[in-house]
Write a structure and sequence with these properties.
Length: about 475
């Protein structure tokens, strides 16, 4: 890997257009690329998204295969990564202003209230004239820039419509001139972000699991959708796919302009826990053509990073690095920012049956001297709260407790005046207060001699890994 680039990679990536939640991996790029082997020549980005990591790989001189299941995301990858220097000229942009002889008005009819009549008329003009450009690459660039200019006006990339057929939230276009913005970006900004690095690049639109079985590469980067509450990536970005279809001359494929149906190709769903666990297993099994996998994941997901490690070690290779990063990301809530955590996992492929366990890379911590008054947390505290009682008698302060069984929670509240937090698997470890002692009696049935002894295969056994996760945080 080009270590000379790592120091100022963030500055180089600033040339790449990444809006709001769509492209927040820019700040983690230097942590990701430090794990790319020095002799690597090929890089696969299975869930391209904004394309920011693929762009970083291209900056590092790698041959990039990037992919995304969403229509506009895939278009973006073709325009920014696969493209080695095709741009629009002033004459191209003037050609796109030719009269709308076909009288196309899909954008005006469907989105006139949301984007503005003048802006929609310009979009319809583009849709009618894109075919006049002299190559497919220019048509893709023009479509990409038009949709990106609309995206740039959104506070957040997620889009939903009200019954009045306008955007929900504060998103106004009454003072926005799309035609001027299109020309300015196409002539002044876009040319700065496209380049050739002497390698061949390819952008595709397909299921990432299918892609994993097709590629041979030095590195595969995985940043799948998370199983987080309220996470509706495809639903929230469907508007951009529909706008792309209109500009590409395929309005008949837009069955409802206002709902969140993205019309995706067949794929395995990574946004729901049950299907995501199966999808991860299949992806690891099929990725044997890649000698290293770098995976980033959010700690707020319903799937624990330890579960991902277990699947990878079972089906692909050995965990060689685990790094957790506390981050702040923008949200659509009134608070604007949310404290969250990212984990970067690195696996190296090996032959034969995987060995090791999800705990192999955890490591230990040195003994510490406790202060006179120390803080502790009480996990799986039960109804009696024996740990709380002991801590209280030692003069310690309980700063957090967790229990899922409601009658036990009520009894705990009666004993100690605090109602425990709920399911520990749904609590962000970074939100738990600082403490010196962690107390936790996780369910033992998965390991008990009196039980089936399925260990981490048993969902109850995985609760022990939540303790380890919190201890590491």
């Amino acid at each position: 890997m080009r270590t000379d680039l790592l120091g100022y990679l963030t500055e180089l990536l600033a040339l790449y257009p990444a809006k709001g939640l769509y492209g927040h991996k820019r700040d983690l790029a230097h942590r990701i690329f430090k794990h790319v082997p020095a002799d690597a020549k090929t890089f696969v980005d299975a869930f391209g998204g904004s394309g920011i990591i693929s762009y970083g790989a291209k900056l590092h001189g790698l041959s990039v295969r990037c992919n995304d299941i969403m229509g506009f995301a895939s278009l973006r990858l073709r325009a920014q990564i696969q493209n080695d220097g095709i741009i629009l000229t002033d004459s191209d942009i003037d050609l796109l202003k030719s009269p709308n002889s076909d009288k196309q008005d899909y954008c005006e009819r469907w989105y006139g209230k949301a984007i503005g009549v003048d802006n929609c008329q310009y979009l319809d003009l583009l849709a009618a004239n894109l075919c006049k450009l002299d190559c497919d690459a220019k048509r893709e660039v023009a479509t990409y820039i038009a949709v990106l200019c609309i995206m740039s006006r959104m506070n957040y990339c997620a889009v939903t419509f009200s019954p009045l057929k306008i955007f929900t939230g504060y998103r106004h276009f009454h003072d926005f001139d799309l035609q001027s913005a299109f020309r300015q970006y196409a002539i002044e900004e876009f040319p700065l972000s496209v380049f050739a690095n002497g390698k061949v690049h390819q952008a595709t639109r397909k299921d990432a699991v299918d892609l994993a079985g097709e590629v041979d590469a030095d590195v595969m980067y995985i940043d799948s959708p998370y199983c987080s509450p309220g996470g509706k990536y495809a639903h929230d970005h469907a508007f951009y796919d529909k706008l792309t279809l209109i500009l590409e001359g395929k309005p008949e494929q837009v069955h409802n302009p206002y709902n969140g149906a993205a019309g995706l190709p067949a794929h395995l769903d990574f946004s729901k826990r049950n299907t995501a666990l199966m999808a991860f297993a299949k992806l690891f099994m099929r990725a044997k053509g890649c000698r290293r996998i770098i995976l980033s994941y959010n700690t707020t997901s319903a799937i624990s990073p330890y579960e991902i490690v277990r699947l990878a070690e079972q089906h692909y290779g050995k965990l060689v690095s685990w790094e957790e990063i506390a981050t702040i990301r923008p949200t659509t809530s009134d608070k604007g920012l949310k404290k969250t955590g990212e984990v970067i996992l690195v696996f190296d492929r090996y032959e034969g049956k995987p060995v090791g366990s999800p705990l192999a890379f955890i490591g230990g911590r040195p003994r510490i001297e406790l202060p006179d008054q120390f803080r502790f947390i009480d996990l799986f505290c039960g109804g009696m709260g024996a740990m709380h009682l002991v801590g209280k008698r030692l003069g310690a302060k309980c700063v957090f407790s967790s229990e899922i069984y409601r009658p036990a929670c009520k009894n705990y509240e009666k004993n100690y005046g605090v109602y425990p937090a709920g399911d520990i698997t749904k609590i962000n470890a970074w939100d738990i207060p600082e403490h010196e002692i962690l107390c936790g009696g996780f369910p033992c049935q998965a390991f008990s001699l009196a039980g089936p002894q399925k260990g981490f295969v048993d969902q109850r056994g995985l609760l022990f890994l939540e303790i380890v996760h919190i201890a590491r945080a």
